[in-house]
Amino acid sequence: MREITCDMCMDLMPLVQDGVASEDSVLAVEEHIQKCPKCKAMFEGELHVPSSQDLLNKIQRKTHTFMAMVLMFGVFFGLSLTATSELFLNALIMPFIGAICYYLYKWKAMYITVIVIFVTHFVLNLLGIIVGVEKLDLLSLLMWSSIYSAFAILGVVIAGLIHFGVRREK
């Protein structure tokens, strides 16, 4: 008989246990579980199989990590447009940043977004001073950060209202 891998054995086990596998598959799984203690324990139900909730939590954690990276990229991209002719694209970018922040933090996003924008803008301006490129004075920095924060808060409010409007009744 042909030797099968543990992955193949794991794939065939439910079919063998339900009695719908072919004779060759049953023989292959039985041969494999005689040699492999891990697969034998899985076949007999002794090993922990990840539950749907564990898988859902893992997917949710990866989604939140990805959205946090998109949030930071969007903030950096939007703030880098401050000194360019594409400055007014921030009227579109910052509400999306607010909506992403709402997805991650719900209503805490009202202040988290503002803090992220102010701190990031200050750090980018500080790096500009260190590198020696054109920088904003403090008043301009506060003004632009306030405007961007207002647009981002608008995005948070819109996302919150959409969430409120489409949520299911319990």
Structure description:
The protein is an all-alpha fold. The protein folds into two domains: 6-43, no CATH class; 52-166. The protein is 76% helix and 0% strand. It contains seven helices and no strands. 20% of the residues are buried. The model has no long low-confidence stretch (mean pLDDT 87).
Summarize, please.
This protein has 170 residues and is an all-alpha fold. It is built from seven helices and no strands.
How many E-type strands? Answer: 0
The fraction of residues assigned to DSSP E strands is: under 5%
Taken from the alpha-carbon principal axes, the silhouette is elongated
Helix content: over 70%
Keywords:
76% helix; 0% strand; 2 domains; mainly alpha; 7 helices
Please render the helix and strand layout as text.
Elements: H1 6-18, H2 23-35, H3 37-43, H4 52-80, H5 90-105, H6 109-131, H7 138-166
Helix pairs in contact: 1-2, 2-3, 4-5, 4-6, 5-6, 5-7, 6-7
